[in-house]
Amino acid sequence: MGTRGYRYKTSHSLSGPGDGGKTGSWRVQRPIIDLERCTPARRGSEACFICWLYCPDNVISRTIPPTIDYEYCKGCGICAEECPTKAITMVDEADVVANDEDPAACSTEGPRPCT
Fold it and tell me: Which of 36, 54, 63, 89 allows an S-S link to 82, with CB 3.0 to 4.6 Å?
């Protein structure tokens, strides 16, 4: 008998950013990263990148601090659910659009809240 080789596949081994297509205007919620609570941004050295690992659309960067590509993010909320420090919250897309805010500039706290 021969040996069997096993391969583990994640969303990152199956597709690349944008393979699911641009989101368009149908997204209901969008994730916002609170950099004060995010492990990579807060500590600057050790990084968990759990959000990056679980994102099915591969739209979260593996950088410090992590960023989200909102053109391709579907707003599923898996990143927010899996974040061990609860640094990612889901906000209503309509609130962000109504306030005409830059998604990269708004935050859940501070001078430019998303809600």
Answer: 54
